[in-house]
Write a structure and sequence with these properties.
With 119 residues, the protein is of the alpha+beta class. It has one domain. The chain is built from two helices and eleven strands.
Amino acid sequence: MRGMLCVAGLMTALALPAAALAGGIHFHSPSGNISCYTWKYRVAVSCEDLSTGANADLMSYGAARRGSGVRGYSGWSLGYGRSYRVGSGLSCSSSRGGISCGNADGRGFAIARGELRTW
């Protein structure tokens, strides 16, 4: 019986997307143009311009890089003028001009419809 439970648990874990296993959170811009995903156990964020597929990743340290994409739109809206802290040392802010995320190293990215800047 115990062996069957282990196999069932493993099969369930393999069926879940990696994002669900990582315990991440989706959020998006109020316009719905930008979708972002954060990882709970790896302090990082990825955001994607859903109209062009342009995307960027940022961890709590180091430079932003063009990323692998968010793959989907879900979660809650990060209202204009609001910020969201991802763990310590990483935060994202929403404005009518898009979403910008920065870390404690002063590195980050800004993403809007048709535009992506990293620093």
